[in-house]
Amino acid sequence: MTGHDLREGRKRRGWTQQEAARRLRVSQGYLSMLERERRSLPGNMAGAVLKTFEVSPLALPFHGESAWAGVKLVEELSALGYPGFARSRRRANWNPAELLLAALSWPNLERRVAEALPWLALTYYKMEWRLVIRKAKLHDLQNRLGLVVTLARRLTERQTGDSSAQLILVEGRLRPSMLAKTGTFCHENMTQAERRWLVENSSVPAKQWNLLSDLSPEHLPHAEWKY
Amino acid sequence: MLNGNIERDREDVRYLCRSIPFDLAVLRRRYHAELRPYIIGDPKRHDLTLDLWIEMLEEDRKRAT
Q: Is the ipTM of this complex over 0.90?
């Protein structure tokens, strides 16, 4: 989240720096420094800024790759509003783009968490995809990301909005860097019995991304939800 | 439950089998005696699903020991 985001958020609410600082429980001088980027926004203040200024979670700063293994995925997805989990009262602490990358980097995910990822890509389709793609490639996650994007795009197939066009673009950018090696969709500990089964029975989108998975749009719990 | 055989269902089955360590031979026997005769349509698909599950659960138990 940049100083510019802060200033824009405050102005959208029609607040002076003094009023916004009072709501954030900081001094006006400190808020001024944050807006002019003389100070960086502390991580523990980001959630309060989001809530107070009603800024998109996409403006949240990244935690960094060293934090990916420790993220509480269910809690964060819930805080971002994923309807498959009980609604959390806590604020989102993770930028959806980084949360997606972090989840994809896990060797094993609970299936219900893995199923939430297309929702994340679709709901926050305005995320900074160039950065997401670049980081995914750095960690050899492009096939997993590709599957997420394809599933998300398939969910919007009947719509003709921005989201569908954006996701098609992302798929196109990922396709040339697809890994030839067959992998799993964050399910490295699957049994050999399942591996053999999935060699024959993976879903079409999973096969397109060289992944062993039977996840398909119709199986997503949020497939019928409105976006 | 045999109607569903996606990863989420198999994860649920694995969890159930870890929580309640039932006898897989009994599962197979009871499927053939009590469920299979009442399946509407071709039961071969369900037979294959049961075979996969039992193979998967046996492997899962071997891993745990």
A: no
The better pLDDT of the pair B49, A158 is held by B49
Min Cα–Cα distance to chain A from B12, Å: 9
Enumerate the domain spans of chain B. 7-64
Whole-number pLDDT of residue A227: 45
DSSP bridge pairs for A183? A211
Question: Which tokens is A113 given?
Answer: 């968490």
In chain B, which residues have their Cβ closer than 8 Å to the Cβ of A194? 7, 10, 52, 56
- Pick from A193, A214, A219: CB nearest B55: A193
* Domains identified in chain A and CATH numbers: 3-55 (1.10.260.40), 65-219 (no CATH)
* Positive/negative CA dihedral, A36, A125, A91, A145: negative
Decide if A197 and B52 are in contact by the 8 Å CB cutoff. Answer: yes
> pTM for the full model?
0.84
CA–CA gap between residue A30 and residue A41 (Å, rounded): 10
Residue of A nearest to B15 (CA): A110
Residue B25: CB partners within 8 Å, gap ≥ 6?
none
Between CA B39 and CA B45 the distance in angstroms is 11
Residue A108 DSSP code: B
Residue the block writes with tokens 């490639």: A137
Asked whether the predicted pLDDT for residue A112 surpasses 90, the reply is yes
CA angle, residues A130, A111, B51, in degrees to nearest 5 = 135
